[in-house]
Amino acid sequence: MNHVQAKVLTHMYDRFLEGYSPEFISKELREQEIPGCTGKAKWCPSAIWKMLQNEKYKGDALLQKTYTVDFLTKKRSENQGQVNQYYIEGNHEAIIDKEEWDLVQLEVERRNQFRQDNHINFYITQCEQNPFTCKVFCKECGGLFGRKNWTTIRGKRPVWQCNNRYKVKGVQGCTNRHIDEETLQQAFLRAIEFLQENKEKLCEKWSNFSDEQKLQKYHATQLYELLDSVQEEFNGRKMCQVLEKITLGEDGCITIKFLEGTKVNL
Ligand SMILES: [Zn+2]
User: Is residue 131 part of a domain?
Assistant: First the structure.
């Protein structure tokens, strides 16, 4: 592992905790032509998922991850309990500090759980161009909202619509209404304003987090930083660091849930 690789790795872990998905991180590394272990700028999300969960980067080693199935052909297979595994803590110098590594594992778990709870096969976050991806849900049918570009006289108008609205072509499914992207942005800013006004209560709630709630604590710090700064304009990247999801009801009710657990109804 050379200096450059260590830098890429640190970047990867930091980005993930900032709310980016492995899909986005791999795209970014390809675009910047950062070479991977093969020397080529070929990065795929699944490799990044693995790197984010590899204990070797926090200085530990798991021996016998694979084992020899056939001694003649030297064929090796993933060890799923066929032979003993040995875990050695502090085996070599760490690239990622243990605390950050542990946080990333909790965040991996959280995203997997989020996918399961919301019945989505993917959890792609695009903090820069399209920050509402995989973040807006329908209160009526539980479906995910997708982005549509409506053409109007004044040009393109981005709106979000329940994906179950026209599941079968031409037949209206879910009756929940669409929402303008700008309305979503304004709603998020209003929720932030509300939290800023209730910061004291929020801090009190956070001070009661237990030692085990490491990830919630981390997300609370991120939110605190955001509340501490002036938010006049919408910033998708900052939103992705603190927002879990937005739920939209047919009655126009907007619920904004933050990653540290607080819900705001607008
Ligand atoms: Zn719906």
Answer: no
